[in-house]
Amino acid sequence: MDPVRVGILGLGTVGGGTVSLLRRNAEPLKRRLGRALEVTRVAVKDPSKPRPVDLEGIEVGTDAESICTDPNIDIVIELVGGVDNAEPLVRKALEHGKPVVTANKALLAERGNELFRFAGEQGVDLAFEAAVAGGIPIIKALREGLAGNRIESVHAIANGTANYMLSRMRTEGMEFAGALQEAQDLGYAELDPTFDVDGIDAAHKLALVAAVAFGAPINYEALHIEGIRSITREDILYADELGYRIKLLAITKNGPGGIELRVHPTLVPQDTMLASVEGVFNAVQVVGDAVGPTLYYGPGAGADPTASAVVGDLVDVARTLGAPPEYRVPYLGFRADGMQEPRWAPVEEVETEYYLRMQAQDQPGVLAQVTRILSEEGISIEAIRQKEPRPGDTDVPVVLVTHTTKERAMRKAVAAIDGLDVINGPSQLIRLEEVDAV
Amino acid sequence: MDPVRVGILGLGTVGGGTVSLLRRNAEPLKRRLGRALEVTRVAVKDPSKPRPVDLEGIEVGTDAESICTDPNIDIVIELVGGVDNAEPLVRKALEHGKPVVTANKALLAERGNELFRFAGEQGVDLAFEAAVAGGIPIIKALREGLAGNRIESVHAIANGTANYMLSRMRTEGMEFAGALQEAQDLGYAELDPTFDVDGIDAAHKLALVAAVAFGAPINYEALHIEGIRSITREDILYADELGYRIKLLAITKNGPGGIELRVHPTLVPQDTMLASVEGVFNAVQVVGDAVGPTLYYGPGAGADPTASAVVGDLVDVARTLGAPPEYRVPYLGFRADGMQEPRWAPVEEVETEYYLRMQAQDQPGVLAQVTRILSEEGISIEAIRQKEPRPGDTDVPVVLVTHTTKERAMRKAVAAIDGLDVINGPSQLIRLEEVDAV
Ligand SMILES: NC(=O)c1ccc[n+]([C@@H]2O[C@H](COP(=O)([O-])OP(=O)(O)OC[C@H]3O[C@@H](n4cnc5c(N)ncnc54)[C@H](OP(=O)(O)O)[C@@H]3O)[C@@H](O)[C@H]2O)c1
Ligand SMILES: NC(=O)c1ccc[n+]([C@@H]2O[C@H](COP(=O)([O-])OP(=O)(O)OC[C@H]3O[C@@H](n4cnc5c(N)ncnc54)[C@H](OP(=O)(O)O)[C@@H]3O)[C@@H](O)[C@H]2O)c1
Q1: Which ipTM did the prediction report?
Q2: What are the positions of the active site (chains A, B) (predicted)?
Q3: A44 bridge partner residues
Q4: Is the pTM of this model over 0.90?
């Protein structure tokens, strides 16, 4: 049979990795598909850039749009990144009846609903495994493998850079700034590290994961996002003493207030699998009503792992090229007419445990005042520790961990505590999740 | 649209779980599929048995074959178990153009090649996610998610009962017999525990995993299988002191001698994810050339988790009911004409590290004799420890760990060591795998 002709937009980290992988594994891929996957055209911004990829036999140009409209291209892979520049390209390809494979989480988090709707109208595929957790086939697991379940929760370490930094802060005793510098020196963090450290990249991924987990429209707007800038060495140390690690988690959960969507630093028990995920790795813990807790672990980014996900999608898409759409897995696992807008839980209605670090004046009665406020809000305390004052300091750190309580009550209590004369606010509040027994 | 009519053979642990799950999650399943999944008939052996499942509206009978030939059944789920009784039923269903979903690893390990060939001739699906690692969607990950990779190795904790027993031996200091008794009391191990503790169940699963990982025919015959009966408390303790845990691993690997297929107790470094898998859980570590190391973790058995896998398959199969076969994922990920018989590595050609425990007479020069034999076989030693004699014993345990060496050389060395006057053989030899840095 004729080869499947593939056009790739962008030849950076992921695009370059994809071209190399398709070349290297052409033989086993053909054994899977019965047809060759042939990259015939790629588009870049600067064609004069030297590229460490074998481009023999591939037409390299700068006109990405012309690939999307080329009748000799069967499938388009979008790897230019960005939202405003990628969207018209994806749309153009779909409009011309070409399925699209993309790794672009920002695009789908912000414009996914319209793009999936349009792809549905055109009857073509739009695949995005590479957009979430790099090489880990987590979209496939949620969308297909766990299709029998009602998903109860997903807890993900979805940004390798942030996880690397938190690992280094713990193992090397670094502060945030030093860990960031190191991550940048190693090429992990972008020069503008906002997406990684402020939780935005993890939030983009979570928006997609929640849609697939719950059969709901993508709702990036509903997300509560906190990054790791405020996390100190001290917090990591105290968490450790209490038996926890601090991770940047992306969490979606069918909670008492509705579907929760939140990205924030989180204490997780040291003896869980999630806690043991170190460095640039990603991990996704999924709890389903039938399967119970499962976990998926692997490299969350990089040329080869991300190309692995792109090519996995490409094989699926190529196999059903031209098939009636009903034979294909729906984009988000649920059919368009089966998607349901759930109640999205406001963050105030989240129920979880909390770690609270306060700076208290070193005098009697402080703990009594703090615990009185908490008890007035119905918050019960699991552990409380008064630390030694830091050298030269007159006030002492007080650290406590609560039992499960509503965020609204916790915020009210912290505001009251920070208003005490004996507390030098603002106090540090970090959520704590038991993440089941995994 | 009309419901998909499902017939289930067997209403035991998994069959009962599947009926319950299909009922409980009928609504979200319909949102995925656009059609209801309706169990219309089930077959059991003893219809008078009380069943803790709601069977309203389901025709319960004892004639399994008549379900396989019933023109009003669209999909057959085989959950009777066993090889000789299940095979004709599966064949009958396929013959009548009905796709089959099964959890039967014994059947597919032993008769899979012929059954997949027959299913191919009939142009219908034969799905088996539930046969491997319970609720973990590992077949889907290997067959589809990681399709872009050449798989390098798979290391799996694939039998929850054996893993539970090894966990208990370590944490409670039990011997094999006590751990087995406990597992039986808890209903984990069968009354005839052979399949679990002798590695047969793990071997059935490995035979399937290897086929999917390497695009090779299923070759249960080529497997090297050792169970956990010979593992003592002492081994677990010494392994612990050396920084390792003992796990029953199912391993397939593209090694220097060809594709390795082996199930055996294995020392794995304590700080790896595989080592931290305790109790009845399963985990599968997959290394691909592009993705690198990934790991999949979850419950390996039980009514609900296994039903999760059965229903996941059912959704896939129902979606492509009546579709031309080329639109469906090939049974083992590779097309029938793309399967290749590899060189299967004889176990003598496996290269790995080893743990060796000997009983040595407590006299000078013993270590010199042992190390001379190892060095004659070109085996280098990573660590060696001479233990205190056990109370009342005159000989002392000597434990050593080698660097990577060929099994053939190691076996020769152990035979020579056991022939020494100063050694009370047979010595205990357990393989040790570094399982990458995961
Ligand atoms: N990097 C990762 O590990 C990773 C992991 C998961 C997902 N992703 C996602 O994958 C996508 C690509 O990421 P990346 O890291 O590969 O980005 P990158 O290295 O910056 O590469 C972007 C590529 O797109 C080209 N390009 C940009 N605008 C273009 C235009 N208008 N027309 C034609 N070509 C254009 C660039 O050309 P020049 O080379 O000429 O500049 C470059 O080759 C992003 O959506 C990202 O979020 C990345
Ligand atoms: N249990 C697990 O956790 C698990 C996990 C993964 C895979 N599996 C696999 O799933 C399959 C089923 O296991 P299971 O644990 O559910 O077995 P099970 O509890 O022993 O159930 C077997 C069922 O099959 C019925 N049956 C046996 N022979 C029959 C025949 N000739 N005609 C009609 N019905 C017949 C039995 O009827 P009665 O009830 O009347 O006796 C029983 O309902 C096996 O292949 C097993 O390896 C099991």
Answers
A1: 0.97
A2: 205
A3: none
A4: yes
